Amino acid sequence: MTEIISEEFVKRFGGEPLIVRSPGRINLIGEHTDYNAGFVMPAAINKYIAFALAPGKDNYRFFSQDLQEEYTIVPNKIKPDPKYPWVNYLLGVIAEYNKRGVEIPPFDCVFGGNIPIGAGLSSSAALECGLAYGLAGLFNIEIKDEELILLAQGAEHHYAGVMCGIMDQFACVYGKQGHVVKLDCRSMEYDYFPLSMDDYQLVLFDTGVKHSLAGSEYNTRREECEEGVRIIARGDKHIKSLRDCTLDMLENVAHNMKKTVYDRCHYVIEENLRVERAAEKLKAKEISAVGELMYASHNGLRGEYEVSCPELDLLVELTLSESGVIGSRMMGGGFGGCTINIVEKSQVEAVVSRISKGYNSKFNCTPQAHVVSLEEGVKIISKP
Questions:
Q1: Among 24, 181, 247, 332, which one is least packed by beta carbons within 10 Å?
Q2: What predicted TM-score, i.e. pTM, was given to this entire model?
Q3: What is the tens place of the pLDDT at every residue in 78-107?
């Protein structure tokens, strides 16, 4: 992919570009906990977006290889463009640099990749971090990794209009081959844990759907969690987020909450505990125990947080009769996208075949299966 992007750049703009590779991510466990200041366990994967960048003359010029669309804008005219949603992730990066007192000179950019769009693998964070990292390398901008992550998140908040947590950008920057990252989304402290996959393989099943509920329900879940925090905090002013709450605290005020708010809070508090248990089990190389926690996570996402959908639920349900699958759950915001599964390597082909058949018989379409491995975070591949 990097060669294709480099060749397209030379053909379209001329000159030798700087090449950046920016990965997508999976999240082993810890869903909807990031914006609640909790724990997550993501990793960068071998699906990525490649960028080719070089200084330009008068304008910012972008070309999306995947969409075959070109976009040009004058540096002092930057603002979100609803006609070209993809470009907002990139313009947002420039705007965030500007906020920090860094003016980005004109440049040319070609990008494209193999991250499935809409599958919950965070192609948006790969776009933001890849461009932010590439511009730093291209124009010798000194920026720490932590600040680059916040810059990329700001681009998504202010230009793409998605109030995401920090997990996706963090995984994109701090990915480590063969490891997941246990991230504390409050302090941004992190630890690496090896995911011992000698006998197993990570397989993603893509439902191929994205229900329209996703955007509005995401914001609703945030509001419900915040309402729960306000109720719990009446008894303890030190409570700032669900991360600060225990199950006992929740039970003590359950009578003051709507059942829906209680369920949302209960899920988040338990999910944080599951992430901590998963770290312990990874350290002990008890991979089957991690799989059990994944199933428990899905049950909470489906029943208490209510962000699953029939397609995701069926994919998880079908794995229950597969002895070669030790863990499965929906991954990402929900209402579509992928499930993440831990599958015995010797069984991958057979499992994919049977689950695809079972899914097709219900929904009359075949889910795409993606076999992924854990790779390094964003990096410059070559300089001119």
A1: 247
A2: 0.92
A3: 999 999 999 999 999 999 999 999 999 999
